Structure formats: C-alpha cells, structure tokens
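FW: tagging you since you asked about this chain on Friday. Here's the raw sequence from the shared folder, copied in full. Didn't touch anything.
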Amino acid sequence: MKKILKVFGHNLLDSAKDLAPIVLVIGFFQLIVLQQSIPNLFDIVLGTGFVLLGLTLF
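HL: got it, structure written out here
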C-alpha cells in the first residue's frame, strides 16, 4: 500500500509539472495582457484539480 501511494504521489507531481506551464500562460494572459480578474476562480481551481487527477490516473 505504501508503495502504491508513493507511485501515485510521484505521478501526481509529474502531472502537476506538465500542467503548470499551461496554467501559468493562461493566468499571465488573463491578468497581464487583458488586465482582467479571473472570473469564477473557485470553479477554475476545482476544474484544474480534476484535470490534474485525471492526468494522474490516466
């Protein structure tokens, strides 16, 4: 069980590293270029978490 959690954590971290540039580019464009706040921030964070979980399990 401990080994499975370790592998899951490693995969989760790898998926987060893959997803981070996409999130940063979109956030930069929204905040700096468009100069608008991020609407529905909670929904976006929740959706990003689901995407991260899906990438990890896939």
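FW: Helices lie at 2-33, 41-57.
HL: agreed, and The radius of gyration is 14 Å.
FW: great, closing this out.
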